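Journal club side-thread
Mid-discussion, someone asked how the predicted structure for our own chain would compare to the paper's figures. Pasting it here so we can look after the session.
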Amino acid sequence: MHEIVLAIGFGIVTSAILALGAVGFSLQFGVSNIFNLAYGDIMTVSAFVAYVTNADAGANIWVSMAAGAAAGSLLSVAINRFIYTPFIRRGTALFTMVMVSLAVGTVVENAVQAIAGDGFRGYRLGAVKSINLAGMSFTSRQLIIVGIAVVSMVGLHVLLRGTRVGKAMRATATHPELARSCGVPTDRVTAIAWGISGALCGLAGVALALNLAAFDFTFGQSFLLIIVAAAVFGSVGQPYGAMAGAVVIGMASEIAAVYVPSLKEVVAFALLVIVLLIRPNGLWPGAFVQKMNVAAR
């Protein structure tokens, strides 16, 4: 029983990191209809930017995390603006866009390898104490990561539901042509959405690197599969569904690891398959189905 309680604590941290990544991934798909497979490599770039800020510039880890989030935001906006958007304007098919994003990810990954090398990196961190809460064990950094994820999710909810920019994002995600005809500056809204999702991607990359203690040029792409699983579990394109998917998959994978560590990722994808068999469009299908119908026309 004690192992299960500890696993729940690990699951909370994993879910927090996964939520940052999955919500950003879903937000990108929602506004652009792009299944961005370069997402994991942007996480890697953000983690390395934070490393340079921390290890070389001497900044503390939280300033470095902000630098990583900014790098993820800027890189995401640039990739969408200068690579994805020209393809979309030419009417490129969805499958072709997936391949384009895969190619972009490969280029970014190899560029990171060429610049940073193959070795593992680790942030320069001070001593940290363990904190026990209800039988679960956390470090202070892990609790801050969970806090950042919670604040980010609440902030995104307020943005989407309570601001004009959020309403414009929802309109653009639901029907971009109709939104444009109603006066919504869809290009600007899309750029803002990619900036926000890129910042979430950057935060997820740095948080994951912190939690792993050491990382290399492939670690973000390795975690991308779990992010995609959480996003699809909750209906890709739906930020709220991605939050739910992150919690379910994060908790289930850590609890499964108590019994069979090698099945940690297998359980996550097994859950995904089961849910898709029952609900083929995910847990929160509304906007996702509508988006696919619009794309098919």
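Post-session note: The chain is about 75% helix and 5% strand.
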